[in-house]
Amino acid sequence: MDAPFFKLMGDVLSELGYTDLAKTAYLSSYQKDPLLLSVRHSLHELGVNIEEKEDGSNSSSSLQSIHLLGIQHSALVRHLPIPYSSSPLHYYYRFLSEYDENNYSKACQSFSTLQHIFPWWNEGVDRYSSILFVEKREKELAALWTRVSQIAPEAKEAAVVHANLASLRGEGSVLGILDQLTHSFPRYSYGHQLLGDERLLCGEPDKALNAFRAALRLSPFEFRVWLGLGDCYALKGDSSTAPCHYEEALRLYPGCVSGLCRLIQSFIQQGEISQAQRHLDQGLKVAPEDVKLLLLQAQVFRLQKQWKSAVGVYEKVLSKSSLEVSVYVDMAQCYHELGNMAESKRLLFLAAKMDSQNQHAIMVITVNSI
């Protein structure tokens, strides 16, 4: 983030009455560009003596408080006073809010609007490119890479866009790009985080741990880093260590449904069904229609041999979206246990039709047909 960005943050926070956070934002702007007279004036009005201010006054926790405030206020969107309701912060924090909520479709719209109105705006382009990667929007990601490589080819954000595009295209250069990125920008937390994600995808949990730990030292309040650490331990088979990392992620961002699902799954793997059910009850109160939570609830019912309850949950999910082949197989087992052989076979034939390579489904069909 550059000096004008923190200056704008300070202006908005001051208008909203968050004086201490406004001071932090203005000081950040001053440290990046001491020649900005408007920032010096704003600090003077807030009673801050720049000459007497210690270097450590701008703590990372204060900056994180500013960021979290933006998210909590729907990114200052609904509370921005005029003229700031039309400022880039309006769209930027809305984008961050939607990004943290995994509402990628809306996040893309917000960032596209931001760059359309403010073509000079680049803050968040790294995360925007990651969304385009997840959404498999190769054409837009390629256009973004062309743009950033022309404007700022040496910028760290450009390397992230390049890595996301290379990964989407299945190129083998992703790890090399991210390794070079973290070497060139060792204090770039998001770069270490992406390297950790990529190492996980390559099945290298130990190397991924090192990357996430580097990100954690720089951004201890980033919930996605804690999720990554939990995933590393889960991949290593350390199901007893993974939950505390997921719990920390949820403490930092209570609305993280994906983190809650990971936590519940870790409890299931440990055989702590009561703990899993307790968190499921809490999660389904907040997000009663979430498909991932519903499928975990069905899994718990199956483990408890509550076949009828499990079928009820599966039927609810089927009314909302299609399921993976393995889920149809699990659902067929429930009907089998309930003695409804006809429905069990129908679901297994459907699973086999969806995936002819699903040998498990075909084998069960054969056994049931004997």
Q: How many strands?
A: 0
- Element string (H = helix, E = strand): HHHHHHHHHHHHHHHHHHHHH
The chain-level structural class is: mainly alpha
Distance between the termini: 67 Å
Overall 3D form = elongated
Low-confidence stretches: 54-59, 71-85
Question: Radius of gyration from the CA trace?
Answer: 24 Å
Share of β-strand residues: under 5%
Major sheet details = none
Total of helices: 21
If you had to describe this structure to a student in words, what would you say it looks like?
This protein is mostly helical. 72% of the residues lie in helices and 0% in strands. The protein has helices spanning 3-16, 19-32, 37-45, 60-72, 88-100, 104-117, 125-134, 138-151, 156-168, 174-184, 189-201, 205-218, 223-235, 242-252, 257-270, 273-286, 291-303, 307-318, 325-337, 341-354, 359-369. Helix 10 (174-184) runs antiparallel to helix 11. Residues 54-59 and 71-85 have low confidence and may be disordered.
